[in-house]
Design goal:
Layout lengths: L2 E6 L10 H12 L4 E6 L17 E4 L2 E4 L1 H11 L9 H34 L2 H15 L3 H4 L3 H11 L1 H9 L10 H16 L10 H15 L10
The structure holds glutathione (GSH).
The site of glutathione (GSH) has 13 residues, from helix 1 and helix 2.
Length: about 230
């Protein structure tokens, strides 16, 4: 029986844009596990109430329900220990944890400014008031006042991604020769942007761009084939 995953969807239910859910889509493919994704909307809290909180990803594997992308990755490695590791040993976990925090504290704040209005436009009409109110309360401004354009986002991201760029000049993936959860943690953020926005936040000659292309091609193009507003 396949694992079921609640997966944040846009107005078009085929568009899945949660950075955290994308970490897990990639992680499940890495482990060779099949998944049935269930489109989920911000206002659909009751569907995931069994997890005891209100955010996705949430997976159900038989009788086991797990939420939070990091906890799900740990669960998958513990439960499916014979399959390729997402985080190989304590060092693999430490690297993935760095990538997780880099993604959330460096990449996401810039990307969020760039795509917040695109998210607003891509989500279901029934989610819009909730999204506007909750995000405006978080940032202390209207979405319109907080948003930045493509040029400003690129200018902010270029220096911010310098450590990632330097690393990817020396190796194909964050994890080394082959991708693992460290890569999926970062890549989720790029799938968030791609899902809702036509903005191109990377220059085509950036090694991070080339890595993103490799990531899009993994698992027979799982991410590249996913319906998205952007490319
Ligand atoms: N720490 C969580 C964060 C999950 C999260 O924030 N998910 C967002 C979607 S990208 C969500 O479901 N938000 C619900 C809301 O804003 O009400 C994880 O890594 O899974």
């Amino acid at each position: 029986m396949s694992i079921r995953m609640y997966d944040l969807a846009g107005a078009d239910p085929a568009v899945r844009f949660s950075p955290y859910c994308w970490r897990i889509r990639m992680a499940l493919a890495h482990k060779g596990l099949t998944v049935e994704t269930i489109p989920w909307r911000f206002s659909d809290k009751s569907a995931i109430a069994v997890s005891g909180q209100g955010a996705v990803p949430v997976i159900r594997d038989g009788e086991t329900v797990v939420h939070d992308s990091w906890a799900i990755a740990e669960y998958l490695d513990d439960r499916y220990v014979d399959r390729p590791a997402l985080m190989d040993g304590a060092q693999g976990k430490a690297l993935a944890n760095f990538a997780r925090h880099f993604s959330q504290t460096v990449f996401a704040p810039i990307a969020f400014k760039a795509v917040m209005l695109d998210i607003y436009n891509a989500i279901d009409a029934g989610d819009r008031d909730y999204f506007r109110q909750s995000r405006e309360a978080r940032v202390g401004k209207t979405l319109e006042a907080f948003a930045i354009g493509e040029d400003e986002a690129r200018a902010l991201l270029k220096p911010a991604l310098a450590p990632l760029r330097a690393l990817l000049q020396e190796q194909a993936f964050v994890n080394g020769d082959a991708p693992a959860f460290a890569d999926y943690c970062l890549f989720g953020g790029f799938m968030w942007v791609r899902g809702v926005s036509r903005k191109q936040l990377l220059a085509e000659d950036d090694p991070v761009y080339a890595w993103r292309e490799r990531m899009l091609d993994l698992f027979e193009g799982l991410a590249r084939k996913a319906p998205a507003v952007g490319a």
